[in-house]
Every structure is written in structure tokens, then in C-alpha cells.
Amino acid sequence: MRRALTTHPSRAVAIVVALTLAALSIAGARAQTRPGGDKGGRTSAEWRKLAEASEAFGDGRGEEARALLASIPVARLPKGAEDDYAYLKAMLADDGAANVAALEVYLKTYPRGPHRRQATLALGRARYVRGEYSEAENVLSIFSPGVEKDYIGRQALVQRGLAQLARGDAVGALAFFRSAQADLAGTPQEEAYYFAVSQAAIRASKPAEAIEALRLLLERHAKGDYGPQALYAMALSLEAVGRPGDAAGAFRQVMVRYPNSYEATRARDRGIRVASSSPTFPLGGGFVVQVGAFSRRELAEALARDLKLAGVDDVSVKQGTETPTIFRVRAGAFSTRDEARALGERLRRERGFSYTIAPR
């Protein structure tokens, strides 16, 4: 029976990132709009307090930031500071319901303000943390694949897909993430993106797609934030596609690399043990089965599609560096030659393919 994944990106981390971005945005906007002080220095003093509140907010000193904001009389706000003040006050609301309400008021009051995108992302995340997934997805629907070019927009795409996934639409979430790949691959949000893709793929009964997303995550972000969760998810996905040996190797890697993590405890609870001779799942090495080599990419891709339709996992087309270029069709990711050979023999018996075993 296929196991469902239970790992999730950290909601607390998501909120901290949103708050930090908000503070940086305020600082940038203030630098562009700050007016000069009046003769009594009153305007400069109020700007200074607002700047100090923003800095405290960005450093995670919420109580200090709230106290500084409270010390600024609304009637004495400098001209041009109203938007910054309202935005910062909304972001510093001290409980979930108040935060949601304040952000909604801010967006209604300043629909074209300089912080509207940050506020929309923060509102979507606040709704998500409260378990209001449909509302979060609706709020974040202003962010669309193919048009988001900045940090805020890319984060919002990941959060929008997670909200869709959390409300139970795994197939739709996976399709959404696929459509956003060009926006997110190769960006600072790539790690979170691939982990989110893996979660959607597992819940959409596409474990092979989850394996590919997790492989990319672990190869490109070996020391990233999602290490133990991604390795554990990889192990569960490998189990789901009938590769128990590789799954056990991935579980062992969780225990070896992250011995104090929650995921390592879960692996130990499954009876997995680490010995000096225990094989681990090859993230960047191991072996593959090569079943074809072509001078034309379209022929290689046609064979790759046929293999996927036949239920073969981890199928890829690798472009060679020689001249003329050769496109090689490969399948699997195995820790030993014997495991790779077992797949090759199955393909030979069932499909008549010749094959070779190659380093991954």
C-alpha cells in the first residue's frame, strides 16, 4: 500500500521570511519618499522613529517595533509616511485574527500602495497558517506563472500551490507547479519549489515525479533547509515505486547525515539500522540502465515516453558532449550494478530492448 507523506515546509520559517521581506521593502520605499524635516525637527523625529521601528521589525524585535510605532501620534505622521506606517502596523498585529484583519484593511485602504504585493503575500500566508486554505489560494491568485520576476512573486507562487495542495487538490497543485517551473527553477526559491512539487506528486499518486523533484533538490541543495525532510520523502517515494533497497538506503542517509532530526527518529522507528557496510541511496552517483542512443533528440524523447507509459521510473534523456551529439535514453537510479541489471533484464524480456549499465 502506498504511504502518504507527512512532511511539510515549515510554516514558521515562511512567516519569518515574509516579515523580513516586509521590513526591507519599507526601508527601500522610505529611502525614496522621505521628506526633509521642518524647522523644529518634528518631521525628522517621526521619520526616525518609523525607521527604528522598521529596523526592529526586520531584526525580529516585535515588541520594540510595536512600542516605537505606538509612540508616533497618528496626527503627526510625516506626509508620505501613512502607507509605511499602516503597513508596518498591520504586519505587527500580535495575533492571527488581528493580523488578517489589519492586512485586509491595509489592502483596501492602499490598493495601489508600494507594499501591496508584500501585504498580499503576507495575508495569503496568514490565511494558510490558520488553515484557511481556500481563502489563502484566492488571495494569492493575483500571482501567476509566467509573469512573476521578483522575490515576492516567486515566493507567492510556491505558497499559492501549497494552499491548493492543502485544500485537497493535489492533481491541480501539481499541474500549477509544473506551469511555474520556468519561474522558479534556478532561483532562490528553487529548493522550496522542488520540495513542494514532491509533496504534490506523492499526493497525486505520481511517486516517480516526486523522486525526480527530490533528486534535483538534494543534488543542487545538499546543505539546504529541506535536507532531512527531502531525504525522508525520497525514501517513502522509493518504497511507493517498489524499490525497497534504495528506500532503505535513503532512510540510512537520513540517520547518518541528520542523526538528531525528527526524520532520523522516524527512520529508526521503522527498524532501519546503520552499519558500516550498509549501502546508501546514490544522490549523485550510482548506476543507470541505458536503453538507447540516438543522433536525433526527438527519437530519444519518443523512446523515453514509451518507457514511462510502460511504467518505468526515472526515465531521462541525456545529451552527450561529443560531435555529432548523441542523445542517450536512461532509466532508473540504483546503488549497485546488480539492481540496475535487474531492470535491464526485465526490459529485455518484456520489450526486447538491449541495454548497458552506465554510471549515473
TrEMBL record:
Name of the protein: SPOR domain-containing protein
Q: Which GO terms describe its molecular function?
A: peptidoglycan binding
**From what superkingdom does this record's organism come?**
Bacteria
Domain named SPOR: residues: 281-360
Species:
Eiseniibacteriota bacterium
- State the Pfam families in the record: SPOR
Residue intervals passing through the bilayer: none
Entries under Gene3D superfamilies matching the protein = Sporulation related repeat (3.30.70.1070), Tetratricopeptide repeat domain (1.25.40.10)
